[in-house]
Amino acid sequence: MFRKISFVVVMLSCIQFGDFANAQSSQFMRGDHNQDRAVNIGDAVGILGFLFSSGASPICEDASDINDDGSINIGDAVSLLGFLFSGGVAPAEPFLTWEADPTSDALGCKTVSTIGGDITADIVLTNDTTWLLQPTFIKDGVTMTIQAGTTIVGDNATQGFLAVERGGVLNAIGTENAPIVFTSGSDRGTRSAGDWGGIIVIGNGANNIPGGTSLVEGLQNTTYGSANPVADENSGTMSYVRCEFGGTEISPNNEINSITLASCGSGTNYDHVMCKSNLDDGFEWFGGGANLEFGICYGVDDDDFDGSFGWNGNVQNIVGIKNNFVDGANDRGFEFDGSELNFTDTPFTNATINNFTVIGEDTQGAQGADAGAVIRRGCQGTWTNGIVEGWADAGWDIDDAATTTNGVVTCDGITFANNNEDFETGDDESEASGYAYTTGELLQTTFTNNQFAGATSVLLSLDPSSDDFCRPDLSVVSGGINGTAYRGGVDPNAGSANWLRSMWVSWDDN
User: What is the DSSP letter of 203?
Assistant: First the structure.
């Protein structure tokens, strides 16, 4: 029996659908409810979730109609479970090939549409379509709305990306059970960082660049910021969005971040957003005041959370995990700069980060990435109620005299664990500028209420399949400060309600 099941699943896993551009609405593989190009228990679970717990609608209804009776019901889940585990009848044809549905009924599959170029009128990306994304620019005054449950596939051939220009708006509001997913156009199992670009949202908010404007990183002839900034500008909302396998290199040493927020105003609010397997940074803010709550970076090759040029946003409940880091040399949890041009330029970068976990080790506990945080170049900011674990260089590094003389860097209520060293006491950049400090000075001026666990991990599990994933061990980690009950980005008492285990989150490596 097990040999039979394994053989079928392997055969199904080998069937791939690699050409999105040429996909037709009648193409599908019967039984593959979740469209991962394999028929397995996940499909049965997905059908049951769709029927009884508001799970995501099937991309292809025909594929979910296991018994080919013209509707999706409990009989389809029963048929699929019977086939997988008790020698039941194989799903109705077409089965081992992608081909047209031989049965005439009302069910169908999503169409595939290409989007690219300048978008000059309001547009809605609907969830009955898979969207093939080429280089796309939402122009000033235009709103793009993306429905819950929509899949946007970055076109590898054209290095597709989505850029929202100043005055444009992107509203991408998914749900826990029907997230919006930006992903690679490569076949599952072959996807990797750099397959496509990313999302770039550009605003008219404040920054500390002379004149108030600059060119957007990763793009040519596209400007962010304004000489007359709009501090509370709203460039849109993202909620329950996953952005994965991006960061294509559009020129040497010039990759696109997973999500860039370039001088977006404080009216721009994101929640439940995941950046996964990106070749450059996860989230990067260039000035402005955009905010983030419940954010994840996983397997990002550069910095997880990067802020500079006067960003003044608020961030709450975030997790960065450096699993599958590539080189480790400059891979950081936080990299925050005041200004790369002049360390005393104002407004200072001065974000507030509360309840965070940044992990440098992989899922087996091996160190490899650089530093949990590098704060430099005249940066200000407040970090509270955090966990910093598993960094091969240092947990925390504050550089440059301007950073400390500004006097507003607060690192309070942070637990350090299993780092090569908890603090960096100076690096080449700070020494070259004539500034060197000691760990004692650093502790005295910027750190309070912190814990030091030595080489001991303070997390119950690094296994994404466990309800204990990234939950702090309360026998080691004390409670939070300033009215917050815990440290880290995950509630230690969450149990099965651990938000990192929600349906919208994916930990698949490829």
Answer: -
Give the tens place of pLDDT for each residue, 282-325.
999 999 999 999 999 999 989 999 999 999 999 999 999 997 65
- Reported as type and span, the H/E element at residue 123 is strand 123-125
pLDDT in tens, 339-351: 988 999 999 999 9
- Cα dihedral 226/334/437/327 (nearest 10): -120
**Alpha-carbon distance 89 to 93, whole Å?**
11
Size (the chain), residues: 510
Ramachandran angles phi, psi of 292, nearest 5°? -140, 135
Write the DSSP symbol of residue 461: B
Number of domains in the chain: 3
What domain range is 10 assigned to?
2-85
Q: Are residues 426 and 473 in the same domain?
A: yes
Q: Is the confidence at residue 437, as pLDDT, over 70?
A: no
Number of Cβ within 10 Å of residue 438's Cβ equals: 11
- Determine the Cα–Cα distance for residues 45 and 468; give it in Å rounded to an integer: 22
d(CA 313, CA 270): 11
Residues 316 and 376 in one domain: no
CA-based nearest residue to 198, from 241, 142, 146: 241
Residue from 473, 476, 471, 462 nearest 507 by CA: 462
- pTM score: 0.83
- Specify whether 388 is located in the same domain as 486: yes
Closest by Cα among 395, 409, 413 to 485: 413
d(CA 435, CA 404): 10
Alpha-carbon separation of residue 464 from 50, 241, 320, 323 (angstroms): 23, 18, 13, 11
**498 and 419 housed in the same domain:** yes
Give the residue among 157, 156, 152 at the shortest CA–CA distance from 192.
156
59 belongs to a structural domain: yes
Rounded to an integer, what distance in angstroms lies between the CA atom of residue 150 and that of residue 164?
18
